[in-house]
Amino acid sequence: MFFSSKGRDPKTIPYFQGSEFTGMKYNRIDKKLFIKNRQDFMDHMETSSLAVFNSNDIYPISADSTFPFQQHRDILFLSGVDQEESILVISPNATNAEHREVLFLRETNEHISIWEGEKLNKEAAFEVSGIKTVYWLQDFERIFNQMMSEVDNIYLNKNEHLRADTTVQTREDRFIEKVRNDYPTHQVKRSAPIMHQLRSIKNELEIELMQKACDITKSGIERILKFIKPDVWEYEIEAELIHEFIRRRSRGFAYTPIIASGHNACVLHYIENNAQCKDGEVILMDVGAEYANYASDLTRCFPVGGRFTKRQKDVYNAVLHVKNEAQKLLKPGITLPDYHIEVGKIMEGELLKLKLIDQTDIKNQDPKWPAYKKYFMHGTSHYIGLDTHDVGPWNEAIKPGMVFTCEPGIYIPDENLGVRLEDDLVVQDSGDPFNLMADIPIEADHIEELMNS
Ligand code: GLY
Ligand code: MN
Ligand code: MN
């Protein structure tokens, strides 16, 4: 086992260190996490190089409205700074030792503190990040120019997530353009492959934060177990969940929640959550809390009336069987593509038993889109961490400390039934993965018992 979640002294848990200022709902994270992460990044850098990481913009809606700020996960991972208009520069060989790690922050002042609240001053920035050298943003051009004059290479941080949609130009993208224009004779290196490696393997501090996110999700599920009744509306369930999440110091959902009763569960990205749940239907809930920017990602399916029909339970148990078998495969050495092939075979067996496919379907199947895909058309597992669909080396052998979801499903529109079950699992050195959601009810009989007790 990676470590046990039982018997912990709360005082030793990093997210339980009191309410020092972070500017956020979550408690201060021990800065040793960020100090270590920066050291790990430096260990991957070539000599005569520096690396730059930018915060996200605050994105506009219209008029003077903006979306709530969400920090870029890479500067967060390397510094803990959860604030807009921030820049981190790492330059391990800088002749001025004070310039080996530098933060540039927006200058705070009395006006800002009255209108926007407290922002990081230089002392607080050190307490959060462990970085001693903090300048205000207006000094960036001058100091950065000096730093660039000492190196041959610059690591730039393009979003290289496999499924990234890059139509919006980020602050990082603008910076890349400017650097390429202002410093055309420097060699550009890619930060993304290093970040994907580092962020994919979680250390104990990160696992604690992810456990906290999963525990908050668990509280939400406990809250709705008895709230779900015939004629409740999907958005009423969403409201119960977010209430529970926020009161436990989460900012809210880690991703847009899917609360899908009956036929809606067959629409994979259903997010309207505006239907009334009817007796006899099953409701699929793909809902996870975030904590300190770490995601949890859970799916559970409950019978609206408190009891599954025989057919619903058969389908449910088929999905549960695939999940139980699939997660055992999440062991060091297997690659995700090979894992997905193996899970496909397990699912095929279950769909045959449910008589949803037959041997003729299998004989005639397109190997690129096997027969089981008619009822299970999405992947089984993805990396999870600071992003719900986290970064990681998708085609390499998996390693201890990686965290994956396991989320098989069967969707039968003709029966107004969709079942998916999803937990978050930490790969161990040996043995089965450690389930961060092991305490959240999943057995069909247990769910019925809890709904009716
Ligand atoms: N909630 C998104 C996913 O399960 O991947
Ligand atoms: Mn999910
Ligand atoms: Mn997922």
How is the secondary structure organized here?
Blueprint: H1 32-43, E1 49-54, H2 73-79, E2 87-90, E3 101-105, H3 110-115, H4 122-129, E4 133-136, H5 140-148, E5 153-156, H6 171-182, E6 187-190, H7 192-200, H8 204-225, H9 234-247, E7 258-261, E8 282-286, E9 290-291, E10 294-295, E11 299-303, H10 310-328, H11 336-353, H12 359-363, E12 403-406, E13 409-412, E14 417-420, E15 423-426, E16 434-435, H13 444-452
Parallel strand pairs: 1-5, 3-4, 5-6
Antiparallel strand pairs: 1-2, 2-3, 7-8, 8-11, 9-10, 12-15, 13-14, 15-16
One manganese (II) ion binds at residues 297, 382, 405, 407, 422.
Keywords for this structure?
single chain, 453 residues, alpha+beta, Creatine Amidinohydrolase, Chain A, domain 1, Creatine Amidinohydrolase, 2 domains, six-stranded mixed β-sheet, three-stranded antiparallel β-sheet, 16 strands, 33% helix, globular, disordered N terminus, binds glycine, binds manganese (II) ion
